[in-house]
Every structure is written in structure tokens, then in C-alpha cells.
Specification:
The protein is of the alpha+beta class and about 220 residues long. The chain has 2 domains: about 70 residues; about 140 residues, Alpha-Beta Complex (Adenine-n6-DNA-methyltransferase TaqI, Chain A, domain 2), CATH 3.90.220. Helix content is about 30%, strand content about 20%. It is built from 5 helices and 11 strands. The strands form 4 sheets. Strands 2-10-7-8 form a 4-stranded antiparallel sheet. A hairpin with a 7-residue loop joins strand 7 and strand 8. The longest helix has about 40 residues.
Length: about 220
Amino acid sequence: MRNNSIQHLEGSGPFEHHSIPSRPDGIESAPLGELAIIRSGYPFRGKIQHDPEGTWGVVQMRDIVAGGGIRRDVLTHVSGIRPKVGHLIGDGDVLIMARGTNNLAAVIKGQMPRTVAANYFMVLRVNQSRVLPEYLSWYINQSTARNYFQRHQLSSTVPIITTETVSGLMLPLPPIVIQRHIVRISQLLNRERHLMEELAKKRAQLLEVLLLNQLR
């Protein structure tokens, strides 16, 4: 029987028409290493410097946005690098921060020609017949996966997770239709959160104007 909180979400607001199908008993799980090719970002030497004439785009930590997306309009561009084919990122790749305490994930949506990820990312190319990239990104951003990464971080000045650790993450594998519904509801939740934040900001601005008018 499904959790009552999920049933509540399904029957109200933006979730009304996006109910999750009843899940089958005994959902399969598999280590991520069996579901994806895992590789490191491009091995830059030294600081990444923007070159207005650069012909290679670089995805960095600052380009990751809430909800697991990428800001394409502000990418740093560089020159003088020679990426191999395996360094190039493309549609459906999942990026995960391998350094620091916040191991966020994001999905590349659409083609990104001549673009690489910075070396503090791991790039996951999944078997999409078994797992949706958006579902994987969503799961990595949940507390279960984040707690797993924190338990297995290598202690150093900047905590690091290894390829072995990422490969060992156990990923629940509901049917694709359920993965798709989970992703859709997560997207709606993120949109609702964004709209509520914007509404709160507008109300605060209006209140400020009203209060200042009382002083005139």
C-alpha cells in the first residue's frame, strides 16, 4: 500500500493529474556500476580561465541549478585543450560532484557540442533501457544517496568520493513508467517551490512599499 503522503500529493495542486501507478512488489536494485559507464571530467591543469575566443565549453559547479539542470548561457569557454572523445559530454549524461560535501547531480538535456565537464565532476552515461538519467539524478540528490556518499568519502582537506564508491551505490529500479512519474512529480514540486519563493519575494517587496508610504 502506498504512503499516505504520496496519495495526498497526488490529489491536490499541480500533482492532481500525475498519480504514481501502484508499484510492483519487490523492486529490483542494482549497483550503479552495472547501470552506467562512469568516468572523470576533463583533467585541467591549473585554474580554468575564461577565454572569449575559446572554442571549448566547460561545465563547472556554478553552472548547476536547483532541480538538477545546467545553465548553458553562462558557460566558461577555454582554448588550448585536447579532449578525447570520452571527455565530451552529451544528451542524457549525468554529472555528479565528486569533491566537497555536497555531491549534487545534474542531467545534460540536449546536445552540447565541444563541451567538457570540469575535473571535479564524474560523468555517468546510463543504460537508458533500465534507468532514466533524470531518475538517476533525482535519486542521487535524495538523502539516501547523499548519506551513502558522506559515509564513504575519503578524508582530506576537501572530501572526495571515488569511482569505486559511485559504482557501489545501490539504485532501486522500478519500471520505467514509475521512474518517469517520479521525475515528473519532482519537477512539479521544484516548480511549485520556485513559484512560492517568487511569490514570497513579491509580497515582501509590496509590504515594504506600503510601509514606506506610511512615512510620507
